[in-house]
Amino acid sequence: MAQFGFENDIHSILKLDMPITNGPMARWQRKASSSSSSALSGLSPSKSANVSLGSSKTPSKTPGKSKKQTPCKMGGDRFIPVRNNKQMDVASFLLTKENEPVEAKNNTALSSETQKAWSISLNGYNIEDAKILHLGGRPLNAPEGYQNNLKVLYSQATTPASVKKTRYISSTPDRILDAPELRNDFYLNLLDWSSRNFLAVALHNNVYLWDATRGDIIFLMKLEREEDYVCSLSWTKEGSYLAVGTSDCKVQLWDVEHQKRVRSMASHTARVGSLSWNDHILSSGSRSGHIHHHDVRVAEHHICTLTGHSQEVCGLQWSPDGRYLASGGNDNLVCVWPRVQDGGLGNRSQAIHKWSDHQGAVKALAWCPWQPNILASGGGTSDRHIRVWNVSIYLFIFVELHGHDDRVFNVTLSPDASTIATISGDEIICLWKSFEMDPVKKAKEKMVKSTTNITHQSIR
């Protein structure tokens, strides 16, 4: 009989029609429990959510305490918006899934595509992409008169006025031209750029022109005697004539378009190392320290002599308005001379300014194009300073461009004021794109420009 009793007990255990008391709560039971909890009166949405999470949560109220809820002060607590039951079920499922053992996750037989299809069919979206909690509702408005103690300590916004535009200056040459047989003499001026975009360069006793627009090389002239050499070059304002100073104390004037010498003027007793134009007046500086003014329209061209330097005049530059002539010499002096009147002044002209602040030969001279009374002067190796003069005030300005292996003899500016040409004792000419071109001029240049792609070619 005991045997039959044991079998009855086994059958009763294996029967499935009895309720399971120690298993997880079914989904419909969780829904019924949550719906019944939300139906209770006197509970806020936040309390409803706490009840639906299960009995394992810590009660929101301490037993034995008063049921009166402490009023929430503005700024003392955070606002929790409404969350519906479906969101809570999804959140509970996702949290339970994250806590599953790794073995249980790996034993899932369904593919990810199948799970995604089932999730979309049952829930209307892929549950893998669902958020654990989705907060909704609008926060409560602050009561009237409420002030927030939090203040902005620092705030910065980029405004057009605060944006600093910095012009880029390339430290490498845009183009390099060979200049063989260039005379290695610091006091000579062997380079000049015309308003018609022709770069003139003197190589020993020859003068060559480089057409910067087309890239062509033009041979202009050669001195008759092999022992003579070209000392200085200077274009007229229109760019149609080129003045050439020579070692045999002469100044030649050449018609570039017809490649013909117009005249040869002799007045100096030493080589002519510097030249500068002021309309029909050509000024020339000599190794003797004298400066001569030539009126190229008349036969008696020599109209005035300026004596202010004790050594070679290596720099000459007329101001843009033609009122002043600046001269620099190997005696470290900078002189400013008045404009020459028609008919000449003989030898009576005196310098209106003479500065001796430089500690080296002054060859580099440049007038400000928009303020004609401002002059910049550059000293030689012993000085290495650029000084900007306005009566007795001077400032120091400098920008370093590295491209030569020897000292730089001359610097000249292109007619569009965008490129600087430098020539050095290493027998090369470097062209530097150092200034921004005017947009209108740039557009016109693109229409007519047909420059070759050669970046390194010989003058000859």
From TrEMBL:
Single Gene Ontology BP annotation: positive regulation of anaphase-promoting complex-dependent catabolic process
Question: Molecular function terms in GO for this entry?
Answer: anaphase-promoting complex binding; ubiquitin ligase activator activity
Top-rank taxon of the source lineage equals Eukaryota
Please name the InterPro entries in this protein's record.
Answer: Cdc20/Fizzy, WD40/YVTN_repeat-like_dom_sf, WD40_CDC20-Fz, WD40_repeat_dom_sf, WD40_rpt
Residue intervals of the CDC20/Fizzy WD40 domain:
177-392
Q: Where is the composition biased (Low complexity)?
A: 31-63
Its keywords, alphabetically, are: Repeat, WD repeat
Q: Does the keyword Repeat apply?
A: yes
Q: Does the keyword Repeat apply?
A: yes
| Positions of the UniProt region annotated as Disordered | 27-80
Q: Name one GO cellular component term.
A: anaphase-promoting complex
Name of a matching Pfam family: WD40_CDC20-Fz
State the WD repeat positions. Answer: 223-264, 306-337, 401-433
The entry assigns this protein to a family as follows: Belongs to the WD repeat CDC20/Fizzy family.
Its recorded name reads Cell division cycle 20 homolog
Q: Which organism is it from?
A: Takifugu rubripes
The gene it comes from is LOC101065248
